[in-house]
Hints:
The protein is α+β, with helices and mostly antiparallel strands. It has 2 domains: 46-144 and 308-392, Barwin-like endoglucanases (Beta Barrel), CATH 2.40.40.10; 151-298, CATH 2.40.240.50. The protein contains 10 helices and 19 strands. The strands form 4 sheets. Strands 5-18-15-17-16-19 form a 6-stranded mixed barrel. Strands 7-11-6-12-13-14 form a 6-stranded mixed beta sheet, covered by helices on one side. A hairpin with a 5-residue loop joins strand 12 and strand 13 (235-243). Helix 2 (61-78) packs antiparallel against helix 3.
Amino acid sequence: MLRPLACVLAAAIAIVPAAGCKSRAKPVTQTPPEYTKPLPDGAQALVEVDAATLPPFRLTPAERTALQQAIKHSQAFLAKPSAGAKFPKELPITREMVQASLADLAKLLATASDDELDHAIRSRYRAFMSVGWNGAGSVLFTGYYTPIFSASYTKEGPYRYPIYKRPAQLVGGSVDQQAQWKRADGTLMPCPEAAELESSGMLAGNELAYLADPFEAYVVRIQGSAKLRLPDGKVIDAGYAGTSGHEYRSIGAALAADGRIAKDKLNFFSMRAFFQEHPQELAGYAARNPRYTFFTTTSGGPFGSLGQPVTSDVTVATNKQIFPPAAAMLVQTTVQDGQGRAKPYVSLRMDQDTGGAMRAPGRADLYMGVGDESERRAGVQEYEGRMWYLVLK
């Protein structure tokens, strides 16, 4: 049975003996889940399982439409000659396998009933399960979204907190690659950490826009994209344009470790409330995350790491060094509806994005969509589950 994060983070369980026993068993300490635990050297993130054992699922017409659109985005990525290099050689799944699977799945979504689709997946597809953090398939599913925040191109009035364009001095840099910084004499050095970039003035002149809330500016930096509503009412897309490549560190985890927010109360909303009450502490906690993200103005987005638009309630972000990009997958977990109601969830999704915290087989991020309702769902999404990549036989 799937359990919320508040339960799986329990540090110890007391074992009570059956009635009539003369002695009591000693409390047994349970090791906390290590969702960010990397794969051991030489290990694989995927293990093939019997597709007949997959959980049953049903799709609404809206879900089918969204999946069809997401498949087109995956196919556009896979059609590029460079896509083949994005599949690690160690993976049991190749670009050609994913392409054939998506073509078949698109036909099924257009013609097959729910029962026929479920039967086809079980009989015609191979299933590769993530080994999860524990080797038994347990994955923590968090949520992310595209916020809509008020912003200005100029530093005026309440708009004082910038997000930055990619500076010309930045060389390289991605989710998995340390960036370099070009000095004035042309030599390279490792890109400084976020706190130094901001405090030193190295980013001066590269401001893309200014936000009115410092926590919102930090959220944009973490989410990697945003929609910004300008004073004249126009909405622009701020899209991902690279990163410093430093290892991501969660300020939420730091708040919990410092005892500022209880672990079972930790989520987006409790963090926002904390920094509203203690605004002077945001800079210090933000400095603990050395990763910095840069932005550019885009249209038609938001876009994922494959260079294609992400799709609400379809796109999943994972580590693309261990999982196949653009592939179809089945996700089983628990989700909330934004009104505080949790429900079991099983559905088809597409692996189309990545993120600084998605570095292990025990972590995945579900894209919830754009705006306030998506924020309400993404902000409380922290449930265990399992995921299987689907490949046509």
